[in-house]
Write a structure and sequence with these properties.
This protein is an alpha+beta fold. It is about 15% helix and about 40% strand. It has one domain: Hotdog Thioesterase (Thiol Ester Dehydrase, Chain A, Roll), CATH 3.10.129. The chain has a 6-stranded antiparallel β-sheet with strand order 1-2-4-5-6-3, covered by helices on one side. The radius of gyration is 15 Å and the shape is globular. It starts with a helix and ends in a 7-residue tail after the last strand.
């Protein structure tokens, strides 16, 4: 299991953009399963359907991408590497995610060439598929730079 403190050492994200609470399964180079507890205190609920709070689909995809980034990084990246999100394909949103839900984010590597990783991601709430997508990311050695 990978807890939030270790996740923060891997990902450059911080509140409110760190969308993975912990990793509960991890198989290097193959798969990772992460959890995101969705609470009414999430800042996006103030503006995204405030009378019927629904987690934005793009943030569900971002949570999947963060799990994929952890999977790629923990599967052999060097300590000062950064994982950059490159593409989204075949994204589908099947059911709304609301406060009180727990997202189970399952990512499986479908292709890895050099420093480019492609993963199939699925997000579940109570065993029901709520979203899916194929995500591609690149591991870049060195520190983050602008331009």
């Amino acid at each position: 299991m990978i807890e939030s403190r270790e996740i923060q050492k891997i990902l450059p994200h911080r509140f409110p953009f760190l969308l993975v609470d912990r990793i509960i399964e991890f198989e290097p180079g193959k798969k990772a399963v992460g959890l995101k507890n969705v609470t009414i205190n999430e800042p996006f609920f103030q503006g995204h359907f405030p009378d019927y709070p629904v987690m934005p689909g793009v943030l569900i995809i971002e949570a999947m991408a963060q799990v994929a980034g952890i999977l790629a990084f923990k599967s052999g990246a060097k300590g000062n590497s950064v994982v950059y999100f490159m593409s989204i394909e075949k994204a589908k949103f099947r059911k709304p995610v609301i406060p009180g839900d727990q997202l189970r984010l399952e990512l499986k590597v479908i292709q890895q060439r050099g420093n480019v990783w492609k993963c199939a991601g699925e997000a579940f709430v109570d065993g029901n598929l709520v979203s899916e997508a194929e995500l591609t990311a690149m591991i870049s050695e060195g520190e983050m730079k602008n331009g």
